[in-house]
Write a structure and sequence with these properties.
Elements (H helix, E strand, L loop, with lengths): L2 H7 L5 H10 L7 H15 L2 H12 L4 H27 L2 H4 L17 H15 L2 H13 L4 H22 L4
Helix pairs in contact: 1-2, 2-9, 3-4, 3-5, 3-7, 3-9, 5-7, 7-8, 7-9
Length: 174
């Protein structure tokens, strides 16, 4: 199933999502590479096979293989880090904050893709996973690297829309 077919398959109650799905994948605030890097990380984060396969298929035609792997690495790292750092943030106790994570995270430095695009993907995936600490951290990095607030919001629009589409695809119909 393609992204267009997914949009067409959405029920009438989700017609806003159909339009949003088309629009968020063509935002002028992001480059095509940023859009598809973020979309891949977010689709995988949403854990819906139909959506993930469709986004991966379209992204494969728009991203260099190394950038596609970088998007997947952003997804994988945020799946681990969002749990760990959300735990530390929620407890807000120095005794936990001072204990080293001791989790391998080399993909953050060695993902092979564009560093800004990787960070945008991490930010968007962290938004889906609800990790305030990671959202703040990745937002600070991309802003420091010159990303505009509009581009930050555009990446989160992708996250919000893909998350909602995945939820509707999973919801019982009838």
């Amino acid at each position: 199933m393609t992204i267009a077919e997914i949009a067409e398959s959405l029920p009438a109650y989700a017609r806003d999502l159909k339009l949003n799905l088309q629009n968020v994948l063509a935002q002028q605030e992001l480059t095509e590479r940023q859009t598809w890097t973020v979309a891949v990380a977010c689709a995988l984060t949403c854990r819906n096979g139909t959506l993930s396969r469709a986004v991966l298929a379209e992204a494969a035609a728009k991203l260099e293989p190394q950038q596609l792997e970088s998007a997947k690495a952003a997804f994988a790292m945020m799946e681990m880090n969002n749990i760990y750092y959300r735990f530390r943030h929620m407890l807000a106790k120095d005794e936990y904050a001072n204990i080293p994570a001791r989790l391998r995270m080399q993909a953050i430095r060695m993902h092979g893709g564009d560093p800004v695009d990787f960070e945008l993907a991490c930010l968007a995936a962290s938004s889906i996973n609800g990790c305030e600490a990671c959202i703040r951290s990745h937002e600070a990095v991309v802003r420091e690297k010159g990303v505009t607030p509009e581009a930050v919001v555009a990446s989160v629009r992708i996250a919000a829309t893909l998350h909602a589409v995945a939820a509707v695809l999973e919801a019982p119909q009838g």
